[in-house]
């Protein structure tokens, strides 16, 4: 399945853990060459890992670092065909208690970082007259509001706005731009959010987890693999007539 992805060069930001790591594994299984970019990666340029896997240290909010990483990828691996922007962060605080630093951090990583990576991949695709796929990892928080997450919610709404605008601009060049909007996915970040979010609401992490499960019509929270399957679909020929979409992967929590 997804034979057309064999040999494609795929860049996944936030590829060291959580949703990003699941997406890296899925594209490797499909036969792609995958570069996992993450702040936790070793410094010093590109590093070879498993077969067809590379890693690179990257702060997505630093435009110069994004350009340098793409230069190195093109030199050592080849031009990027598909990019998935899974790098993200979150802070938990009610709007009236959110600091300017927390606001800036969410917007810098989630919104600006996603935009900068997509911008520079798209620039190279256009310059080479090549088609490609840009897949943003947004969130159901890009379509809804959630208590204690104002800065995060704002950043993910911004990601969906970027998705729609870039989709319109790049469609004539055959570059498809879509977003995935995950719901409650079991990741290290979600575990931390339950602890921090529970603290500001007077709940334990276990109580927050039970509340999470109770809100999902399918009766379970998601896994990185649930999101990764949709990323493969959007990168494949099956999604060749789709652009500008925000696809929910929420177990039915969000239906719009």
Automatic annotation (TrEMBL):
Where does the chain cross the membrane? none
What keyword terms does UniProt attach to this protein? Oxidoreductase
What InterPro entries does the entry give? NAD(P)-bd_dom_sf, Sc_DH/Rdtase_CS, SDR_fam
User: Which protein family is named in the record?
Assistant: Belongs to the short-chain dehydrogenases/reductases (SDR) family.
The protein's name in its UniProt record: SDR family oxidoreductase
Species this protein is from: Microbacterium croceum
């Amino acid at each position: 399945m997804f034979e057309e992805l064999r040999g494609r060069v795929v860049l996944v930001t936030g590829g060291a853990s959580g949703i990003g790591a699941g997406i890296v594994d899925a594209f490797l299984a499909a036969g792609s060459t995958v570069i996992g970019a993450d702040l936790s990666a070793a410094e010093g340029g590109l590093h070879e890992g498993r077969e067809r896997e590379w890693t690179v240290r990257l702060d997505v909010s630093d435009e110069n670092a994004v350009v340098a990483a793409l230069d190195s990828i093109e030199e050592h691996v080849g031009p990027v065909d598909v990019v998935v922007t899974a790098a993200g962060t979150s802070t938990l605080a009610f709007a009236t208690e959110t600091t300017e630093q927390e606001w800036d951090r969410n917007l810098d990583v989630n919104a600006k970082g996603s935009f900068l990576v997509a911008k520079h991949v798209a620039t190279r695709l256009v310059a080479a007259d090549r088609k490609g796929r840009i897949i943003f990892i947004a969130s159901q928080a890009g379509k809804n509001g959630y208590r204690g997450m104002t800065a995060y919610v704002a950043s993910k709404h911004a990601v969906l706005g970027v998705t729609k605008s870039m989709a319109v601009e790049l469609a004539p060049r055959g570059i498809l731009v879509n977003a995935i909007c995950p719901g409650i996915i079991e990741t290290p970040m979600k575990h931390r959010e339950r602890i921090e979010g529970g603290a500001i609401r007077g709940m334990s992490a276990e109580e927050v987890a039970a509340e999470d499960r109770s809100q999902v019509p399918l009766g379970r929270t998601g896994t990185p693999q649930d999101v990764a399957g949709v990323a493969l679909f959007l990168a494949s020929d099956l999604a060749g007539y789709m652009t500008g979409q925000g696809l929910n992967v929420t177990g039915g929590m969000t239906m719009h």
